[in-house]
Amino acid sequence: MKQISVFVACVCLCAAAAVQAQSVAVVDMEELIKQHPSTASDKKLLDQTLKDFRAESDELRQKLEALQEDFEKLRKETQDPALSERARRTAEERATKARDALLAADRTAREKTQSRQEQLSDMQTRMLKKTIGELRESVAKYAEDRKIQIVLPAGQTVFNDKTLDITDGVLRQMNVPRPAPGRVDGAASAPARSPAPAVKDPAPAVKDPAPAVKDSAPAVKDPAPVKDSAPVKAPAPAATPK
């Protein structure tokens, strides 16, 4: 009887240990994000938005180049020695207006570039936040159904047994088939936060014109050189919430 009691006690201890082991699990959130049904469509929308911004950028660049050419042409007219004093002043006024229009357009292009960058960043952040919110709900439901008390990010554990990984189980619960190892499954298998190509700089630097004729009154002042504006880049990868 004593031996039977010892045996029963060991069985109970093993069962308790098994139950305790099942109360903790790990999940690969980055893999869940990559395989989430919304990831492919979100990336497609982000890429299309970048494409639209690139087209807008090209239009701004063409406008600035045209304004630059107009200013250079008018500036050269002010230096024509054959002009009368009255004609020279008229030419200088036109050149000044062209210069102001050029600088104003350059500022507008830079502001629009910054605005587009912020829009892209905000768009990606909202997309990722929505996806992670849905994934957390799926993980919570999976854990509750199986009496799992704690779920940890797989990438933040020093070591975990593979049997504790519930990533595949959560994907099955979401009816998302996981691609076989090494398989490239279109856009859905691409990194969830892969940045798209940067948009070209829509605001080229305004060239510094040669000094205006000094003996004319008033001379057309040189516009201050404008530094190249930063290109509209794809939004930086948003940090995955822990």
Your description of this structure?
The protein has 242 residues and is mostly helical. It has a domain at 38-150 and 182-189. 56% of the residues lie in helices and 3% in strands. It has a two-stranded parallel sheet. Helix 3 packs antiparallel against helix 4. It is rod-shaped. Residues 4-21, 182-192, 208-221 and 224-230 have low confidence and may be disordered.
Sheet having the most strands: 2 strands, parallel
Q: What would the principal axes of the Cα set say about the shape?
A: rod-shaped
Listing every helix as H and every strand as E from the N terminus to the C terminus, the arrangement reads: HEHHHEH
The whole-number mean of residue pLDDT values reads: 78
The N- and C-terminal alpha carbons lie at a distance of 52 Å
Q: How many strand elements?
A: 2
Strand fraction: under 5%
